[in-house]
Amino acid sequence: MKEVLLDQLAACHDDESWVKSSKTILNDISVAEATWKPDGNSHSIWEIANHLIYWNEMWLSRFMNEDIFENSNISNEETFEMDLKMDEESWRKTIRRLSNGFSEWRGIITNCEVSKLEGRIASYFNAQWWNVISNLCIHNAHHIGQMIFLKKLVRLNETDDVLG
Q1: What is the Cα–Cα distance from 68 to 63, expressed in whole angstroms?
Q2: Distance between CA atoms of 154 and 134, rounded to whole angstroms?
Q3: Mean pLDDT along residues 7-18
Q4: Second label for 52, Cα 20 to 30 Å away, from 25, 104, 119, 138?
């Protein structure tokens, strides 16, 4: 169980396996590329990174604090919002924060007891922790795929602009 979760977290973070990892995808993206949107209804790469940070940190906090349910007035849509300056330093901090979250999860999983992973979350459908963490990885993989697609689109858009 631990090995599967650690493998899933590594695939999302920095292990080149079936898909590109978040670290690889975000490494060479500029601020302009990170904030670009193909239309008014889509989220930018930076917004998606914020969304992942929110959920990864929220579930990590719950795991470490024995499922203390934090009542939040934040809607899912609000987790995408950007409240930082849109400059290179802020973008690099966002990338580091996402990366650090994956590293923290991997460290916690490595060092926790299997019984903790088998434990149930009473306030969340009585689900087992290993299942919730696995689904968190699926959530990350889904959004990393969106970031890959947006990166390709923004670079195609840049090429079209140059070619006029």
Answers
A1: 8
A2: 30
A3: 91
A4: 119
Q: Using alpha carbons, list the distances in angstroms from residue 162 to 6, 31, 153, 156, 157.
A: 42, 19, 14, 10, 9
What is the number of H-type helices and E-type strands within the chain?
7, 2
pTM of the model: 0.92
CB 61 within 8 A of CB 70: yes
Q: What are the structure tokens assigned to 140, written together? A: 């990350």
Write out pLDDT tens, residues 79-131.
898 766 889 999 999 999 999 999 999 999 999 999 999 999 988 899 999 99
More confident residue, 61 or 74: 61
| Calpha distance 23→33 (Å, rounded) | 16
First-to-last C-alpha distance (Å) of the chain: 52
Question: Any residues with CB less than 8 A from the CB of 162 and at least 6 apart, and which?
Answer: none
**Pairwise CA distance, residues 47 & 24, whole Å:** 18
Per the DSSP assignment, residues forming a β-bridge with 121 are 127
pLDDT tens readout for residues 13-42: 999 878 889 999 999 999 999 999 988 789
Alpha-carbon distance 82 to 35, whole Å? Answer: 10
